[in-house]
């Protein structure tokens, strides 16, 4: 599957709270490096997003998705339920065989 399609599906699944689709996007040993923590493993990542995120009523407004040397880079803003900007972000995705193996999140 095309990396841009996978990355868009990642944000769509989070915003729709579709954790079954979300889980299917990841390799079992995925690692997500966030500014506040590192999350290792598909089940742990899905559980965190479903149950433990500080604010689950958010949406992602993407401004760019691009390939950069084997990494797919997504930039955008995280919005709260009222559409107010919480912060800008850049997520760098590594994929193998159409599954996400690593995400590195930076916020601004």
List the main descriptive attributes of the protein structure presented here:
single chain, 108 residues, alpha+beta, Nuclear Transport Factor 2, Chain: A
Question: What can you see in these coordinates?
Answer:
- The longest helix is centred in the N-terminal third of the chain and has 14 residues, at 3-16.
- A 6-stranded mixed beta sheet has the order 2-1-6-5-4-3.
- With 108 residues, it is α+β, with helices and mostly antiparallel strands.
- 29% of the residues lie in helices and 49% in strands.
- It has helices at residues 3-16, 19-24, 42-52, and strands at residues 26-33, 38-40, 58-68, 71-80, 85-96, 99-107.
Please give a quick description of this structure.
The chain is an alpha+beta fold and 108 residues long. It is 29% helix and 49% strand.
Domains (count): 1
Shape: globular
Please state the average pLDDT score: 96
Largest sheet: 6 strands, mixed
Radius of gyration: 13 Å
Secondary-structure element pattern, one letter each: HHEEHEEEE
Flag low-confidence runs: none
Say what the CATH topology is.
Answer: Nuclear Transport Factor 2, Chain: A
Q: Which structural class fits the helix and strand makeup?
A: alpha+beta
Portion in strands: over 45%
Number of E-type strands? 6
CATH class: Alpha Beta
Helix amount: 25-40%
Distance between the termini: 30 Å
Main sheet strand line-up: 2-1-6-5-4-3
Query: What's the number of helices?
Result: 3
CATH architecture: Roll
């Amino acid at each position: 599957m095309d990396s841009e399609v996978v990355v868009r599906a990642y944000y769509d699944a989070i915003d729709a709270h579709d954790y079954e689709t979300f889980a299917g996007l990841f390799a079992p040993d995925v690692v997500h490096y966030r500014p506040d923590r590192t999350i290792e493993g598909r089940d742990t990542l899905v559980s965190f997003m479903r149950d433990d995120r500080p604010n689950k009523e958010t949406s992602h407004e993407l401004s760019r998705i691009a390939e950069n040397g084997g990494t797919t880079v997504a930039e955008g803003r995280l919005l709260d339920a009222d559409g107010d900007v919480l912060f800008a972000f850049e997520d760098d995705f590594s994929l193998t065989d159409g599954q996400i193996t690593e995400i590195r999140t930076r916020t601004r």
